Amino acid sequence: GQQVMQIPQYQHVQEGEDFTTYCNSSTTLSNIQWYKQRPGGHPVFLIQLVKSGEVKKQKRLTFQFGEAKKNSSLHITATQTTDVGTYFCATETPNAGGTSYGKLTFGQGTILTVHP
Amino acid sequence: EAQVTQNPRYLITVTGKKLTVTCSQNMNHEYMSWYRQDPGLGLRQIYYSMNVEVTDKGDVPEGYKVSRKEKRNFPLILESPSPNQTSLYFCASSFYGGRGSPLHFGNGTRLTVT
């Protein structure tokens, strides 16, 4: 199945520093979604990117989709303690018969720790 | 309140004893899916359902069964649980599958098989 590699696995930052996590694929992605999971919680949808080269912002968060649609990044400017958690990328892939896109493949996640 | 409800939240069982984890959504979503989360492996899809009576395998379906007899319910069945199925399980739903519709997750079920 589709593989999406996410790096780094862990990131420790001081409050106020920036943070970036990357998702990479060897094949072209139909789209990329980003989710955040707080410690002890469940994943929560952040955003979806569909177009080549797309950039979207949500306050201090910037999401990018690569020109070749094979990679994506999430950048947080000036981290805060409320940013702690695990950030996942995910992409939809076709089933074995290519008849539906219900399969969703997640990256391994990046665990962000923010030290006050 | 719009939500995905999983039960139970915690479950400890023994090898071979059949169990069911229930999942229900009240948002009239067509798409539902099950994931397991293990350290270092992220979220891996077990099964998904594009609509009632339509189910398909995800990446790790072995040892699991699902059914979608009603739109709102999507139970996960472990006929003969084994210790390697010890994990954190999430149910999720969305309006449509395969069209970028955001997933809404339940609160998770932490399963331990001894």
Can you give a write-up of this model?
- The complex is a heterodimer of chains A (116) and B (114).
- Chain A has strands at 5-7, 10-14, 19-24, 32-37, 43-49, 55-58, 61-65, 71-76, 85-93, 103-106, 110-115.
- The radius of gyration of chain A is 14 Å and the shape is globular.
- In chain A, strands 2, 4, 5, 9, 10 and 11 form a six-stranded mixed beta sheet that branches.
- Chain A is an all-beta fold and 116 residues long.
- In chain A, a hairpin with a 5-residue loop joins strand 4 (32-37) and strand 5.
- In chain B, strand 5 and strand 6 form a beta hairpin.
- The chains are: A mainly beta (116), B mainly beta (114).
- Chain A binds chain B through residues 1, 6, 9, 31, 33, 35, 41-45, 48, 50, 88, 90, 92, 95, 100-109, and chain B through 31, 33, 35, 40-45, 48-50, 56-59, 90, 92, 97-100, 102-108.
Helix content estimate of chain A: under 10%
Rg calc of chain B: 13 Å
CA(first)-CA(last) distance of chain A: 40 Å
Taken as a percent bin, the fraction of beta residues of chain A is over 45%
Task: Give the radius of gyration of chain A.
Answer: 14 Å
Helix content of chain B: under 10%
Shape of chain A: globular
DSSP strand content of chain B: over 45%
Low-confidence stretches of chain A: none
Query: What is the arithmetic mean of pLDDT of chain B?
Result: 95
Assembly annotation = heterodimer
Output the helix-strand order of chain A. Answer: EEEEEEEEEEE
State the major sheet of chain B: 7 strands, mixed
Our count of helices of chain B gives: 0
**What is the 3D shape of chain B?**
globular
Low-confidence stretches of chain B: none
What's the total helix number of chain A?
0
Topology at a glance:
The complex is a heterodimer of chains A (116) and B (114).
Chain A: E1 5-7, E2 10-14, E3 19-24, E4 32-37, E5 43-49, E6 55-58, E7 61-65, E8 71-76, E9 85-93, E10 103-106, E11 110-115
Parallel strand pairs in A: 2-11
Antiparallel strand pairs in A: 1-3, 3-8, 4-5, 4-9, 6-7, 7-8, 9-10, 9-11
Chain B: E1 4-7, E2 10-13, E3 19-25, E4 31-38, E5 42-51, E6 54-57, E7 65-66, E8 76-78, E9 87-94, E10 104-105, E11 109-113
Parallel strand pairs in B: 2-11
Antiparallel strand pairs in B: 1-3, 3-8, 4-5, 4-9, 5-6, 7-8, 9-10, 9-11
